[in-house]
Amino acid sequence: MHRRRGALFAGGIAIAALTLTATPAAAGPSAAETADQAAERAAAQATEKLPAGMLKAMQRDLGLTEAQARTRITNEFKAGKEEAGLRAELGASWAGSWVTGKTSDEIVVATTDAAEAEAIEAAGATAEVVDDSLAELNAVKRALDRASAERATTDAPVWYVDVTSNTVVLHAKKTAAAKEFVSAAGLDAGDVKIVRSGESPRPYYDLRGGEAYYINNSGRCSIGFPVTRGSTQGYATAGHCGRAGASTSGHNRVAQGTFQASSFPGNDMAWVAVNSNWTVTPYVRGSGGANVTVSGSTQAAVGASICRSGSTTGWHCGTIQQHNTSVTYPEGTITGVTRTSVCAEPGDSGGSYISGSQAQGVTSGGSGNCSIGGTTYHQPINEILSAYGLTLVTSGGGDPDPPTGCSGYESTHSGSLSSGGQAVQPNGSYYYSSSSGTHRGCLDGPSGSDFDLYLQKWSGSSWTTVARGITSAADETVGYSGTSGYYRWIVHAYSGSGSYTLGLDRP
What we know:
Blueprint: H1 2-13, H2 35-45, H3 52-62, H4 66-90, E1 94-100, E2 106-111, H5 117-122, E3 126-129, H6 134-151, E4 158-162, E5 167-172, H7 175-184, E6 192-196, E7 202-203, E8 212-215, E9 219-222, E10 225-229, E11 232-237, E12 247-250, E13 255-263, E14 269-274, E15 283-285, E16 291-293, E17 305-310, E18 314-329, E19 332-340, E20 352-355, E21 358-369, E22 373-380, H8 381-388, E23 391-392, E24 411-417, E25 422-425, E26 431-433, E27 437-444, E28 450-458, E29 463-469, E30 476-482, E31 485-495, E32 498-505
Parallel strand pairs: 2-3, 5-6
Antiparallel strand pairs: 1-2, 4-5, 4-18, 7-21, 8-9, 8-12, 10-11, 10-23, 11-14, 12-13, 13-14, 15-16, 17-18, 17-20, 18-19, 19-22, 20-21, 21-22, 24-32, 25-31, 26-31, 27-30, 27-32, 28-29, 28-31
Helix pairs in contact: 1-4, 2-4, 3-4
GO molecular function: serine-type endopeptidase activity
Pfam family, one: Pro_Al_protease
Region (Disordered): 396-422
């Protein structure tokens, strides 16, 4: 962690570049990028194809220039990928992390062990020594969650772990009601910080996020993210939009699908299976109808920028304030949602939250509006995927199902990598494509790992990544339509070790 963290965060997360001077026809570009260089390049390219609407919304809502918005997304992409490693290394002393600064160029790492501070600082991050670990704070929040089954009240509707202040915070319209709630949870007054607030969160029902859909030909909600389950296609959305068995029609009123499962309150998640009239895509509807590409679902850090699409209010952005928040609506309490400063209004329910190209969650509810500002909550997408056994449809390739051995490709290559290592394929070298067409790669990595796959093309002076599969899964599929030239594939063991199989097709 410390070696990588220093490279990633020192000097505001500088982007490294690999320069090669030999041409393929002469010496052949056989040297692979280092793991750090591959990670740096992937992070930089996370901003290359962002739709103009997303950048403009970030400029408007966060007070950024276009260059600052791009830099911020790059920094946050890398911070999100690194948080899992930080958490594992600090173990019981882990107290959370967050990004700060206009372009998220600083990461703060909180720990209860003062002995860790020097190593954290040496790695280029800012260390903050605190009293309570994240595990201890989560235990306090779970006590409130349990009490909410009997004592939840809209007079104290929101509570969460705030890693930036190392406290559990409870928002309340009436302090007396909040104190009664804390006591009913078996907690002491000092365990929870009560904050006076006028929030009155409610679910957003008649809303359209990326695309509208209608429930039983009446109520209207929004598609969150396209997903698959085996050979079945569908989408994730908010649970309060419909119950299992409810039928849906699309934005064009064409028969669409059926709710397969739904949870609300407690959670606010659901998924809909669609019929053969509909095809999943790795996109969210962005500003002006532009496609926002989804390439993964790495959870962004507290303080990171995040954008939301809604038919009522359009494309709006803000920041992540807290993860693991509990909120009480008139219908009951939901737990484990993320609190953001993105505004929303009725008409945005079930829609998509995205940070850079990483899916974050589906719109649950909130308070305020986009005229005076507001607070919103989203159900994390990874929890929905896990709960229902779904696979997020991403830009990693044409087949939304994970690889199962990568058979049926023109050539197959195998290898073994330790965590952080990488290999060049095919066979440690490159290949020449004399015609335009589609290059396809299928990576079947070891169970429980996070292996990534990159396709690079020789520019005449260096290798440039033109396509990538960088989800948090062991397996990746990548497709790229390119012109003639020299190409190579990079297999990178982002975390975990073991053997892999790579299937390749070329034009």
